[in-house]
Amino acid sequence: MDQRREPGGRGVSEVAVDALGEVVYVELPEVGSTVTAGEVCGEIESTKSTSELYSPATGEVIEVNDAAVADPAMINAEPYGTGWLFKVAVTELGPLQTPEEYAAANDAEVV
């Protein structure tokens, strides 16, 4: 399965990373906490702006990427690889879009 479409989501899309610019800070939910699909679960700050992170799924956070917290540039370099944010033991999915659908809705292109 394409990592970008795994249930529960893991990170920020390439479209969002391009819009944000250089990521300098990320705040993630704690392991063991519960996140709810469509609700704020963290924050990401770039040289351009600060944005809220929304959970794509409901469930328990089972892992966070401490390396990305320590070095947020990883998010820009590989948003679908080493720049992943957190993993969720999914109990319910929210309304998810494919990368192409998300790009089209945000006047961008998937690279």
Q: Biggest sheet, strands in spatial order?
A: 1-3-4
Helical stretch tally: 4
Q: What series of H and E elements makes up the topology?
A: HEEEEEHHEH
The helix/strand class is alpha+beta
Distance between the termini: 18 Å
Based on the coordinates given, report the CATH architecture.
Beta Barrel
Residue share in helices? 10-25%
What is the CATH domain class? Mainly Beta
Alpha carbon gyration radius: 13 Å
β-strand amount: 25-35%
CATH H-level superfamily title:
RNA polymerase II/Efflux pump adaptor protein, barrel-sandwich hybrid domain
Mean pLDDT: 85
Low-confidence stretches: 1-9
Main β-sheet description: 3 strands, antiparallel
CATH topology call: OB fold (Dihydrolipoamide Acetyltransferase, E2P)
Shape call: globular
Structural account:
The chain has 111 residues and is an alpha+beta fold. The protein has a single domain (3-105), classed as RNA polymerase II/Efflux pump adaptor protein, barrel-sandwich hybrid domain (OB fold (Dihydrolipoamide Acetyltransferase, E2P)), CATH 2.40.50. It is built from four helices and six strands. A three-stranded antiparallel β-sheet has the order 1-3-4. A three-stranded antiparallel β-sheet has the order 2-5-6, with no helix packed on it. A hairpin with a 3-residue loop joins strand 3 (40-46) and strand 4. The two termini are 18 Å apart.
